[in-house]
Design a protein that fits this description.
TIM Barrel, about 20% helix, Immunoglobulin-like, ten-stranded antiparallel beta sheet, about 1000 residues, globular, alpha+beta
Length: about 1000
Amino acid sequence: MHSPTASSLRWTGVFLLFTAFCSLFTPAVMVKHENFKTCDQSGFCKRNRAYADTITQSSHWKSPYDLDSKSITFENGQLSGTILKTVGKAGETVRLPLTVTFLESGTARVTLDEEKRQKGDIVLRHDSKARKERYNEASKWAIVGGLKISSGAALSRETEAGTTKVHYGPAGKYEAIIHHSPFSIKFKRDGETQIKFNDRGFMNMEHWRPKIEKPEPKEGEEQPLETAEVTGEDESTWWDETFGGNTDTKPRGPESVALDISFPGYEHVYGIPEHASKMSLKETRGGDGNYNEPYRLYNADVFEYELDSPMTLYGAIPFMQAHRKGSTVGVFWLNAAETWIDVVKSKSGSNPLSLGVKSAVDTQTHWISESGILDIFVLLGPTPKDISQTYGELTGFTAMPQQFAIAYHQCRWNYVTDQDVMDVDRRFDKHKIPYDVIWLDIEYTDGKKYFTWDPLTFPDPKKMHKQLQKRERKLVTIIDPHIKNTDKYNVVDELKSKGLAVKNKDGNDYEGWCWPGSSYWVDCFNPASITWWKTLFKYDSFKGTGPNTFIWNDMNEPSVFNGPETTMPKDNLHYGNWEHRDVHNLNGMTFHNATYDALLERKKGEVRRPFALTRSFFAGSQRIGAMWTGDNLAEWSHLAASIPMILNQGISGFPFAGADVGGFFGNPSKELLTRWYQAGAFYPFFRGHAHIDTRRREPYIPGSPYTEIITQALRLRYQLLPAWYTAFHEASTTGAPIVRPNFYVHPGDDKGFEIEDQLYIGSTGLLAKPVVAEGADSVSIYIADDQPYYDYFDYTTYSGAGHHTIKAPLEKIPLLMQGGHIIPRRDRPRRSSSLMKWDPFTLVVVLDKAGNAEGTLYVDDGETFDFEQGAYIHRRFQFDRATKALTSINIGGTGAKTAAWHKTMSKVRVEKVVIVGAPGEWKGKTEVVVSEEGAKESARKKKVEFTFHSAQGKKAAWAVVRDPKVAVGKGWKIDFS
């Protein structure tokens, strides 16, 4: 769902309300760039870019930042000191306390603050109520672990004059070499520099200074802007800045922080979502095919966003990783303010003889944030998996969702009545199409008042819930952070009376405009707001909801129709008197987090895993729920763009991601809709959604053959739910992406580092290449290794590194299985995932070129937190060519509820084993021997039917073990000798 574009005018209440509602019925238009800042229109970005240009063009530049050698101390894995910034011709110095902390994980954390602001030794302008300090609480929201300080970090005895060297990390293989004058840091691994701070001298921490009123220049005596920029003293946006009819008062004056971070020998950098851009980030300083603007992180409600752009979108994760053959490193820039990031690449100065490992290209980045402290984590890998694990330890792993959440969700803006919802539900059943969740957008409410139902269109929500529950289905309702300002509405009355709303710069409740018209915003930085928010979701408060009701948080950037850049003024105040500028990118996560907590406490004694979707996010949002890529278009280009966007979310620590299937705006052709469902079946979050003005497009609408083909795609998703659920479990324990790009799976394959249109599902070996072009009847899929790959459906074999053409008529999904894996699935079609709970499993054993394979299966109740007390099954399946046996091995732990859960699952069995690439020597075999732990003596070894199918042309030989009658939760062996 999306807001109308913001006006640059100060609308009156009546006119704006009228316009907002009328916009629902007017044709959509593309993004209005004039509503969003460029770097040149963002004062601090322009200043820091100009500063960098001055340095680059000067042959005599010396950074004004020096680490005072006498101030350095090192104790218990932490280095402290003071950086002195020299200001002006008089040589005045500004003191900047520095801390470099070396963590047990091998991560280094660098923080830099400003002493005067830290001590509150400044004067705020306009008698502002804002805090005097730089914002230093982002870690409170984003960081949940991984901060144990290393006991092994030690100062090096080899330190030269003017430098301080610290050995840290595993076996002391990492080094931080800190140069004092000018200040810079090199981070090394195994003796080789991986990351450099301030190597180009772009570091800039705008210190506090009082505003000195200057007389207006006489006509003809104005200082040219260009001259002001070169001297670095362009004050035009230091104190006040106007955009879109709003003036930002900046009570603390200029306070940006900036730093250049270089990755020597790394050509590819990824991450910093959310952008509709390539996964491998493009350069931003112009040139053929490059951007002219930096990547921007400033959560915003962008109407019909454009593709191939560094423009900001709905979420911000300031985490970047650099990759080259044999090495991955990363930096996490922990800052919640508006941030811009320049990316440039240059020829490396490395030894050309080392090019087998290092790239001939260096990537140099320039990070610029409007406010806050400088707080950076340095992750030295060396593998993509190491980066995922370490970043996940810091910001948290993906929450383990309920089983239904990874199945199919049906949504549109809007299902208009409760009868409409029930009719859609019945029609899915009539056409035998599986789905788990139906969604309600804002129209279900009584006049856009959240926690209410429209009495005319949704008079009996309990009846609606009851019908859904019969098929184990769920309902998701939208709840946004703006609360309607109207009479006789208890929610807004309580919000105001308890003082829980966001404040304006004067300390009064901030009033803006959104879907309901005049609105207030819940300030979820306030602990009291969260306590209150929890009460609203209880069943006796949010009447008509039940245990199968879940929540969607939209518009939480926050979207404000009449605000600057369609969001809040930066000088608004949040709890603790922090300015909105300091916490903007955190805002959506705090609201999402409050909703998650509220769902946990709806009813005493009822503890179910929450499901809460968010549009806005920050580092750490993955702990709470899912996200989607916002208001895309029903165009082939947006289908294609969804894949790199979702892959980038995954490698950036937030893998529970999806895109609106079919496109939010516009009416997709039947072909596009069909292909989008085939692609959506490989999104971790799989939801069809559409704008209020679009035609209905539920899967049963298009008719034959489209409905049947879409149904096949949906059934494929449901068939593979065991593999998806196992991938989610891996993400929840290791931070690994759920869908993975080529570079993550094959980090040594430099030919595949830019591939972004195909994806692997978890560790299953499943490789999908969705069709994203109109009229295409084939795809070129890239194979990175020398293992055999088999078509999922007919076992056609593809082998040899490079591109392979796969025929893909409309009914065909290009999906391969990499040799060496065992894929769990459930083959019985059901109406919803919960109805599959007791179904048997099929194991697809895909042999590698050596004749071996292995895979895992994770199963729990898909609903509660009992898995935390051992109520789960976690098995590793292995086929060993040498022993000619397939075995099931327990890799799970035990807990208070392990035995009871295993007893519950005792009758759930493996009903079929399929072996793809079966050896020819099995031809003629008709039975295999099966043994199971705990079986009675007479049944300990039993013979089971076996069928062998010979290879035909390019189609591999395959074999089937039919109903070995082994429990999925027990140890067993199938002997093929």
